[in-house]
Each structure stands twice: as structure tokens, then as C-alpha cells.
Amino acid sequence: MYVVPYLGGGPFTILIRQEGSPTESCKNYWWTNLLYVSNFLPEQKDKMCMNWTWFLSADMQLFMLTPPVIAVLIKCPKLGMGLLGALLTACIVAVSGLVTIYGLPLTVMDLQASLPTSEALKFDYDYNYDKPWLGGINYIVGMALAVLLAKRRSNSSKIRWNIGIFVFGWAISFVLAYFAIFGLYYGGLDTPVQMTLSRRWVYAALARPAWAVAIGWVIFACQFDYGFAVKSFLSQRIWTPLSRLTYAAFLIHFIILQSYFTSLRAMLNYSTYEALSIFFSQVVAVYAVAYLAFVVIEMPLRQLGRINSQSTYETNEDDDVTTPTTTPTTTPTTTPNKGNTPNTPGNRSRGLADRLFNRAKKGEN
User: Nearest-CA neighbor of 15 among 249, 264, 251, 268?
Assistant: First the structure.
């Protein structure tokens, strides 16, 4: 962010050099990104450092919740599923409750209308959008789906489908996704005053779970080879290299856009062609820079992580393997991974897993 003021050359560059600009915000609140609390601090959204990275903070907060929930699921599956249900209910109640209490608008267009809101509402504070209780709805549904897939994978029997279940599943998925996306339109998005408080809290309570269930069905159907054209499209190899660049693209995309718009020396006349031209040109620019960041930063760090993991496995293997004692009259036996079995990382990992499994069985006995 500190180099952004020097990337643009147009008259709008002054907007990001003056007090209160994103650069100044990062000087004061850089630590919130480091601690993954930028979605809570500072309270004013325009003071956030790299405010588009709120998603990383919310995602990390939800990730920290995952290990204890998984531990409960392993120890007591029924209790774990009940815990997931309770957490999901709490998130839905929190989202809809905040909308009801403060009369929160759901869109930017709602802010332009004279919607009845609470006097305690702070318009510069985001109550729901960047908070973990909103993203937690999708996250918890995803965790429940992962548990279901793990159980089905451990069961060797294949799911028996019939045409009725297949059509019903895809139809429900389509309907849920449709109303999650276009529900605001039918609720009065074109004339925001018609978006009553009751419509807003109902949409806030149901839209996220509906979208999560719709996407969950797509994943479930594709996992068991009933995705057909959808699975074929999502399995194309072209997505593999792009998927490796998405994180870097996410971090730098706003900086690229800001550099472009601050370099303009004339006002833009909006047209569909102009919007499409800017969109595709910026996509190319963002992914080009993301590729450089991936090669220079992310790829070397990944290789270091692999080297460290491999050396850790080798160290643990050396500590665990005990050389059998032999007398002078006996013939030395060949130890694993020396001579007969290739000493590959896969074999080392399988050997370590076998030893841990055997130790667990001895402990149970």
C-alpha cells in the first residue's frame, strides 16, 4: 500500500496521498491485519488497512473454531452434529437479529432510501457483512458436508440414485440459488423503500443457508459422479493454474485497480463496451502480476515448506526405526526402505502411518 501513491500519474493521485487515504490507514492499523482482527478493528470501515482483506480475518477466525468442533465430531459424532446445528442456528439468529434491532439495510442502494433504522445505528460500521457470524453460515454448512462426504467415503457401498432424487436435488439447488441471488429484486430492490423490515430480516436469515445448501448439493453430486456437465466443466485443467494464482490476485487486485483509475486524465463515459474493456484488461493485468508474485514469493515458500516437511518425516523415521540386534552367528536382515523398497516420500509416509496405527492398536490392547 505504501507504493500506491507513486503508481498513478493522474490528478486523482492526490486522493490517496492526503490524510485519511488507505496508505495512512495502514500506518495506523497494520497490526489488525497481522492479528486477523481487521474485520472488528477499527470500527470505521474507511479506516481499515487494505479493507478488502477483511475476508482473511473472518476466515481465520472461523478456521480457529474448526479444530475443537472436529475433535467433538470424532469423539462423539452425534454431539458434534448437534454442536454444528447449534452454531448454525446462532449465526442465523445473530444476522437476522441485528437486521431487526438496528433496521439494517441489506444493500448499498438501501442506504439511499429513507429506511426506518434505529437511532443507535452507526452507518460507518459494518454489523454483518464482514463479521464471522455471517460467513459462519456457509462455513458451518461446509463442515457438515465434509463430515457427510467423509462418512460416505469410508462406506464402500455406492449411493444408489434414481431419476426422482436426481431431478429433485438439482431442482431444489437451482431454486435455492435463484432466490438467494434474486430475492432482493423481488423484495423491492428496484424501489428500496418497498424493502420492509420484515422482508429484510427474512431474507437475511434464509439467503445464506439457501446458497450454502445449493452449492453443497453441487459438490455432493459431483463427488459421486452425478454432476455430468457441471463436473466436466469444473474438472477442466485450465482451472488448475488459475486456482494457484487466486490468493495473490485477491491480495493485489484492488491495488491494480486503484493504480489504473488514479492514472486517468479524463472522465469516463460509461457504456457497456467501456465497462467490458476495463474489466477484461484489468483481469489480465491482475493475473499477470499475480503470476509474478506466485513465482517470486509463494512458490519458493511452498518449496521450503515441502523440504521442511520431508526432513521432519525423515527425522521421525530415524527416531522410530529400531535396528534389530543380531548375534555373530545370524544373518543380518534387511530393514525396510533400504535396498528392497524404494526410499520415496510416499513409502516413508506410509511406513510412518503404519507404525502409528500399530502403536494405536497396542495401546488399545
Answer: 264
Among all chains, which residue has been given the C-alpha cell 486522493? Answer: 15
Question: How many angstroms from the chain centroid is the CA of residue 93?
Answer: 22
Instruction: Check whether 359 has a pLDDT greater than 60.
Output: no
C-alpha cell of residue 244: 494457484
User: What b/e sequence results for 57-96 when a residue is b if at least 16 CB atoms lie within 10 Å of its CB, and e otherwise?
Assistant: bbeebbeebeeebeebbeeeeeebbebbeebbeebbebbb
Closest CA to 212 of 140, 106, 128: 140
Grid cell digits, residue 57: 480475518
Residue type at 135?
G
Cell numbers of 35, please?
492479528
Distance CA 287, CA 275 (A): 18
Q: Which amino acid is at 85?
A: G
Residues sharing a CB contact under 8 Å with residue 258, sequence separation 6 or more, in sequence order: 4, 7, 8, 16, 22
Q: Give pTM, 2 decimals.
A: 0.70
Radius of gyration over every alpha carbon of the chain, rounded to an integer in angstroms: 27
Rounded to whole angstroms, the Cα distance separating 81 from 307 reads 37
Indicate whether 288 pLDDT > 90. Answer: yes
Q: Residue 260 corresponds to which cell in the numbers above?
A: 489504473
DSSP 148: H
CB within 8 Å of 102: residues ≥ 6 apart: 117, 118, 120, 121, 127
pLDDT tens, position by position, 28-86? 888 888 899 888 888 777 778 888 888 889 889 989 988 888 888 888 888 988 999 99
Phi and psi, residue 24, nearest 5°: -65, -35
Distance CA 33, CA 363 (A): 44
Structural contact between residues 103 and 118, judged by C-beta atoms closer than 8 angstroms = yes
Please say whether the beta carbons of 311 and 304 come within 8 A. no
Q: How far, in Å, CA of 197 to CA of 96, rounded? A: 10
Q: Does residue 203 carry a pLDDT above 50?
A: yes
Cβ pair 211, 180 in contact under 8 A: yes
Q: What is the largest CA-CA distance in the chain?
A: 96
What string of DSSP letters covers 92-112?
Answer: HHHHHHHHHHHT--SSHHHHT
CB-CB contact of 277 with 311 (8 Å): no
Beta strand residue intervals within the chain, DSSP E: none
